[in-house]
Amino acid sequence: MDDQTSVDFLKWALPQLGLRWPGYRRVRHLVAKRLNRRLAELGMADLADYRMFLANEPREWARLDALCRIPISRFYRDRGVFDVISWQLLPEAAMKVSTRGGDAVRCWSAGCASGEEPYTVAMAWRLCVADRWPALGLAVIATDADETMLERARAACYGPSSLKDVPEAWRKRAFTRQGALYCLADEFRPDVELALQDIRRTMPDGPFDLVLCRNLAFTYFDKALQHRILDRLRERIFPNGFLVLGSHERLPADGGFASFAANLPIYRCTAPPTGALASAGLSTFRPDPHQPSR
To answer: Which DSSP letter does residue 194 get?
Structure first.
């Protein structure tokens, strides 16, 4: 199919999935390749046939939705953001957890793909923060809607391109070379629990000190869905906790969050606790620190 044909199809189909075309401009060729493979599987000549198929087979919309997932990720992606997470957000969260008598800093990585983001948080904790708060642990729940991506995260072995932004000292400390791959050392894995969840339908209960929802809801979801997601995220973040977005994402001005770092997509939750969070204890989520990520 030519580019304009795939663009026209995406502009028609994405809104029906609660997705927005502007988020797909730069990655449309990836989706087009997947669509071509799907057409071949179905023995169809073009997207006009596929549109008719979608009209007659409602279950195919779920397959199309999966074709539109963009699992681009790498360790320490957006260096400036992870510098702030490592040296400011995690230490501040540790201080607050210690003050309130908690036992672990609790984080959620939404749309974790193959695990680079939550494992980066685990590395930041152990290499930059843990020595200063030896009585505290880290509990990261990492969720994604794609089981294939989660299987890669469980394996925790990556090609060199996934590590290109990792500080050299971290790479030497946290990874071992196995053939062409770099595998995360076992000590960095137990802090992360992987779970199959689609953020549009279900979320972990929280509450969390830090939530990373990067290059997902506020890039690909339509405005109405973004607002619903933001409301639910706010309910799961401790007052004065943090929400981190992708480098090109921004929150609505009235979303209950305030900018934390100039020119970086990092926000502090300013809204008072509501719903379950208002009456929550220290946490409803804690992975077993003695078990490997599942």
So the answer is: E
Instruction: Give the contacts of 138 (CB within 8 A, at least 6 positions apart).
Output: 104, 105, 107, 121, 122, 125, 126, 130, 191
CA distance 48 to 33: 16
56: domain range? 3-67
Are 194 and 133 found together in one domain? yes
Q: How open is the CA angle 25-164-211, to the nearest 5 degrees?
A: 65
What's the average model confidence in pLDDT over 150-163?
97
- Cα–Cα nearest to 266, from 80, 134, 124: 80
What is the side-by-side order of every strand in the sheet holding 181-184?
157-158, 181-184, 175-178
> What b/e readout covers 171-180, taking b as 16+ CB neighbours within 10 angstroms?
beebbeeeee
Judge if 123 and 42 occupy the same domain. no
The answer to whether residues 205 and 108 touch, using CB atoms and an 8 Å cutoff, is no
Residues 6+ positions from 172 with CB-CB distance below 8 Å:
none
Structural domain includes residue 290: no
Looking at residue 128, the DSSP 8-state letter turns out to be: I
What is the pTM (predicted TM-score) of this model?
Answer: 0.90
Q: 187-204 pLDDT, tens per residue?
A: 999 999 999 999 999 999
